[in-house]
Amino acid sequence: MKLRQTTAAIMVLVLLSAGLPVSVYATEETREQIRQAEEERDKAKSQLNQTKENLGALNEQKNSIEGTLSELNTQLSQVSNNLSELETKITEKEAEIEETNQKIDQAYLDLDEATAVREEQYQNMKKQVQFLYEKSDYLYMEMFFSSRTISEMLNRGDYIEQLSAYEDKKLKEYMETQAMIVDIVQELENAKTKLETDMEELDSYRVQAETEQNRVSGLVRQANVSLISTSNQISDAEGAALAYEQEIKEQELNISALKIKLEEEMRMAQLAAQSGWRDISEVSFVEGDRYLLANLIYCEAGGEPYEGQVAVGSVVMNRVLSSVYPNTVVGVIYQSGQFSPVASGRLALALAEGRATEKCYQAADEAMSGTTNVGNCVYFRTPVEGITPKYRIGGHIFY
After folding, report:
1. Mean pLDDT across 338-353
2. Do residues 18 and 249 lie in contact, with contact meaning Cβ atoms separated by under 8 Å?
3. Residue 370: which pLDDT band, with cuts at 50, 70 and 90?
4. What angle do CA 276, 281, 286 make, to 5 degrees?
5. Which residue has the higher pLDDT, 72 or 235?
């Protein structure tokens, strides 16, 4: 058996090297290409739709961020205005503090001056009180007895009265100076208290200004980063959408071309049906035809029911019998572009390893005997839109 399989494989290679008739007609490979192209196109459409949805969401996110950024810029403008107002208040407060410092300095000068005046007044009063205490009785007696006339005595009395009034005045001045010193000290204390309050208020203004500026600036930075990130994502999504659209266009063109090719297949099928047909008795089989057909059936319909395997073998034999196609099993199977396992290399691997099952050989024998369960159909494929099949067996349609 092994020798027979090897001999069949060698015969196939010899026939191929001898040169086979070439046909431009597409077969199952074309249909498979259409199916794959439609799947890829549908996948690209799905990805495009998903990308467009993502793009819509990203645009909404971008609009939201731009709105937030606009609000933040408005807030930043308000903060700038607030900062301007705070700077004005700070400037005013600094001027008030400077004025308060000047008042405090002046108050210290006034205090020193008032203290000096008070000290001088105090020393003078102290001397006057001491003099009056020690000399007043003697002074009054001397003034009385030393007066030569009543008029002179009265004049001296006026002098004493003026002296007393002067003393009262000096006492009053001293008391006023003392009161002024108390006022100055109180004003100084008030100025110090106000200065401390102003300094605290000034620090508060500065903290407010810095806090507000940092808060809004931070939000603006975050919004800008988010906007840049979203814009980049949108750019990527738009690029992907363009790529998918281009891919869809290319697939549409490919599908159109393949469908034109498939129409040619349909035309050839009709032509084959209308052309001359040989009888199975007129076919000359060579050694290796059964082995080759069984392995092709294995590749094309190995997973199909037995009826489906017979149907695939029948399509091959219908082509052998038709005047439109090559008149040998080898010529039909290896006709250019007809069966996808030939192009993909799966048939060569199956032939090398003898993968055909017993049922595949049985189906090949039945087809080679002239039995057909698909009439004179010369094509089969998986179902596709636009083709009304004559038969549907398993996962294939036949026409």
Report:
1. 94
2. no
3. very high
4. 105
5. 235
Percent of the chain past pLDDT 90, that is, above it, reads 26
Neighbours of 91 (CB within 10 A): 10
Instruction: Using alpha carbons, select from 182, 212, 368 the residue that is nearest to residue 291.
Output: 368
Within 8 A by CB and 6+ apart from 120, the residues are none
Identity at 15, one-letter amino acid code: L
Please state, in angstroms and as integers, the Cα–Cα distance from residue 187 to each residue in 49, 107, 130, 184, 192, following that order.
Answer: 81, 8, 35, 5, 9
Specify the pLDDT at position 1: 47
Let me know: does 261 contact 26? Beta carbons within 8 Å. Answer: yes
Q: Is pLDDT above 50 for 84?
A: yes
Q: What is the Cα–Cα distance from 213 to 228, expressed in whole angstroms?
A: 22
Distance (Å, rounded) from C-alpha 374 to C-alpha 306?
13
Compute the distance between CA of residue 166 and CA of residue 34 in angstroms, rounded to an integer. 132
Which are the contacts of 48, defined by CB distance < 8 A and separation ≥ 6? 241, 244, 245, 248
Distance CA 22, CA 4 (A): 28
The answer, yes or no, to whether residue 17 has pLDDT greater than 70, is no
Residues 267-282: b if buried by 16+ CB within 10 A, e if exposed: ebbeebbeeeeeebee
Q: Among candidates 280, 298, 287, which has minimal Cα distance to 350? A: 298
The DSSP secondary-structure symbol of 371 reads: -
Half-sphere exposure of 257 (CA within 13 A, CB side): 8
Report pTM.
0.42
Average pLDDT, the chain: 79
The residue among 107 and 312 whose pLDDT is bigger is 312
CB 297 within 8 A of CB 28: no
The pLDDT assigned to 26 comes to 41
**SS3 assignment, position 12:** helix
Name the one residue in this structure whose structure tokens are 């007895």: 145
Which residue type is seen at 228?
A: I
What are the backbone dihedrals phi and psi of residue 148, each rounded to the nearest 5 degrees, phi first? Answer: -90, -20
